[in-house]
């Protein structure tokens, strides 16, 4: 197989934190890779979250999303920090201090 033939998806094991499940899918293409982030709240529906497709989330970095959801009933997005791009791991401290 040549590099130009690559187009695959990879999955990591889901992460569970406080009853929320984080699922991440990595899509590999010829010249880049992107990670898609999905979270399911307890008893809820899976939602794509507005997080950078170039950063993985872990049990520690997903916690601000969970805390925001518990407080606001929705997951944060770029509008919550007045950004044109998706959220990044280092945006989450700013997000939580804006309460």
Considering the chains and any ligands shown, give keywords for the structure.
99 residues; alpha+beta; 2 helices; 5 strands; 20% helix
Would you give an account of this structure?
A hairpin with a 4-residue loop joins strand 3 and strand 4. This protein has helices at 59-72, 92-97, and strands spanning 8-11, 15-17, 20-28, 33-40, 47-48. It is globular, with a radius of gyration of 15 Å. The chain has one domain (3-97). It contains two helices and five strands; from the N terminus they run E-E-E-E-E-H-H. 12% of the residues are buried. The chain is α+β, with helices and mostly antiparallel strands. Strands 1, 2, 3, 4 and 5 form a five-stranded antiparallel β-sheet that branches.
Bulk shape: globular
Structural class: alpha+beta
Number of distinct helices: 2
The H/E string reads EEEEEHH
Taking pLDDT < 50 over at least 5 consecutive residues as the criterion, the unreliable ranges are 1-9
- What Rg is obtained from the alpha carbons, in whole angstroms? 15 Å
Beta strand count: 5
Instruction: Determine the N-to-C terminus distance.
Output: 51 Å
Count of the domains: 1
The quaternary state of the protein chains shown equals single chain
Task: Give the proportion of residues in helices.
Answer: 10-25%
- Give the DSSP E fraction (strand runs of 2 or more residues): 25-35%
